Task: inverse folding
């Protein structure tokens, strides 16, 4: 019976800075774990975002390639310039310019 009472009293008179330092350490550990998880999620989000940008560029670039191919086929058949197909090339090129900052001279790289 004396042992539980002695143990309870020893805890009651324990130095509060020891308890506080332990709590601070645990909080710091939890914060580090949370920060590591957030960093991992941010890295994953950045990868997905970069893949989406790359895919958007590919689609726009392929649009230019298809417009040029179509224009070239018409030229090879009739040796005339089809204004509608020339406009498609122009439109596809402008879309490509919008898709990537590389084409924008004012963009910071």
Result:
């Amino acid at each position: 019976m004396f042992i539980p009472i002695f143990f309870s009293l020893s805890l009651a008179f324990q130095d509060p800075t020891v308890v506080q330092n332990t709590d601070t350490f645990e909080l710091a550990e939890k914060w580090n774990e949370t920060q590591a998880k957030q960093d991992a999620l941010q890295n994953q989000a950045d990868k997905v975002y970069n893949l989406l940008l790359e895919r958007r560029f590919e689609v726009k670039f392929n649009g230019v390639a298809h417009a040029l191919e179509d224009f070239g086929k018409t030229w090879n058949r009739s040796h005339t310039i089809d204004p509608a197909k020339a406009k498609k090339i122009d439109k596809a090129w402008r879309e490509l310019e919008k898709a990537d900052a590389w084409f924008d001279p004012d963009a910071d790289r």
Summary: The CA atoms of residues 2 and 68 lie 94 Å apart. The chain has a mean pLDDT of 82. DSSP finds three helices and no strands in the chain.
